[in-house]
Amino acid sequence: MLIDMEDYLKTDFDVIIDVRSPKEFEESHIPGSINLYVLNDEEHHEVGYLYKQVSKKAANKKGVIYILKNISHHLANNDFENKKILIYCARGGKRSESFYTILRQLGYDVYRLNKGYKGYRKYVTNYLQNIEHNFLVLRGPSGCGKSELLQNLTPSLDLEGFANHYGSSFGARGEQPSQKMFENMIFEKLRKIDKNDYVFIEAESSRIGNLLLPGNLTKKIKSSPQIEINAPLDDRIERILKYYGDIDKNEFVNNLNKIKKYISNESYDEILYNFEKGNLKTVAKILLVDYYDKVYKKKDADYFILNNNLEETLKKIKEIKEKFVKIF
């Protein structure tokens, strides 16, 4: 059965199969899907070359040979019994149709996404341009515990988690997803949250590492109720060490050089000296006091909470949310 995006959103699938090439899948895909390609990267390139340079017939013949080989392999190595299956390719064309047809003939409960991944992306882009959710924004200086609080609040949208980046000058956590994949993860999270509920989110700039906040999300964050979180300096230092304490030396120095123009030469030298000596608490303190707190743009907030006890702070935040829920 061919289904559109509205049907996709209303249906729970046990397996979502992306039949595109591994390269296409790696760049971005529907979150939760698995890559059972009908043409691998080399085969996909070869078939495309034949189509453009030789003939459509030659491309189709070679494509069928590869597709049957790959589908046979997937059938031998995967169990689809008693599972609701969704299949998609780039545009809802022959690649998804071929796998769908064979599974259908074998009696599996299988569906195919109309317009494929391109249609999915069009829907995601439009959705994120017109986000209707309500947000409660946690903001505050580095190390105040925003991320920890967010992990204990529901519903919440963890942008830094999706971006694989802490959102600061020293925030890199490894390879980041592509922009499209970042947007897909945000969409899949938001679409499952009641639009009448309030979603907790951390205040972010328009960019997290190399990724841009999509659609009107930046505007929504700025216009939503703001909860300013602060914490004692010693607690903030401990959190900084928890998240950044194992940073590689070369990475640390590289990041430090990026912010050198924002701190004094004395602070810069002191940071490097203490880092070399392993005095990481001193390093964290200097960075917080001489850099992060000075560049943090403190704006008017609607609520202020001192976070010196996780459970108490969570209780206060939930009480704030209740005020908004009752209004609506």
From TrEMBL:
Domain of life: Bacteria
The name this protein goes by in its record: tRNA 2-selenouridine synthase
Keyword Cell cycle: no
GO annotation, biological process: tRNA wobble uridine modification
One Pfam family matching this protein: AAA_SelU
Species name: Lebetimonas natsushimae
A molecular function GO annotation: tRNA 2-selenouridine synthase activity
Gene3D superfamilies: P-loop containing nucleotide triphosphate hydrolases (3.40.50.300), Rhodanese-like domain (3.40.250.10)
InterPro entries: AAA_SelU, P-loop_NTPase, Rhodanese-like_dom, Rhodanese-like_dom_sf, SelU
All residue ranges annotated as the Rhodanese domain in the record: 10-125
SMART domains in alphabetical order: RHOD
Cross-referenced PROSITE patterns: RHODANESE_3
UniProt KW keywords: Selenium
Keyword Kinase in record: no
